[in-house]
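Continuing the series of single-chain predictions for the mutant panel. This is the parent chain; the variants come on the following pages.
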Amino acid sequence: MMSFAAGTFAAGASSNPRHLMLAQPSQGIPNNPLPLIIYPQVVPDEPEEGAEELSPDDLAQWFRAEFGRHGWPVSWHAPIYPYTHYHPNTHELLGITCGWAEILFGGESGRMVTVYAGDVILIPAGVGHQQIAASDDFMAVGAYPPGVTPKTLRDEQALMEQSMLEIKRVAMPETDPITGGEGALTEVWHPLARKESL
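Parent structure:
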């Protein structure tokens, strides 16, 4: 697992999950001590013999099935908002179904990440995100834990105190959303959560 704390990077540059620390608030974006986790190219890129390459619709279906199987039902399929926003009441799982995008995570002082079809991003509650640039065909699916309707807030300093309290109450997922068991989430988030609770 690699950690990136500065600069712009492409999610698909390595096949290993990576994490991006965005613990410090940025103006009206609270962010989170839990790092953003990037899973590059989790979708099988080698179709079975005789099968055609996965289409964007196939990728969307694959994400729906895999995310749902691991307890993260998909609730939308669209581009990402072109303004900085965050969800204080839930973590968010993104699967890129088509094209590429440059996404700014963490607010104005955050980091830009380039994502591609097949990548998955796990965004901790409170971490700001904004689509800055994208290919014309860019699309993503978004998923949340069962029964959760995300509250979407913008960069507003007046909401920070309440948002930070809400973020602390968000449940820790028990398993990794990609493997359904042990994985990047359990290896990185669980130890940090235990340390925070001491």
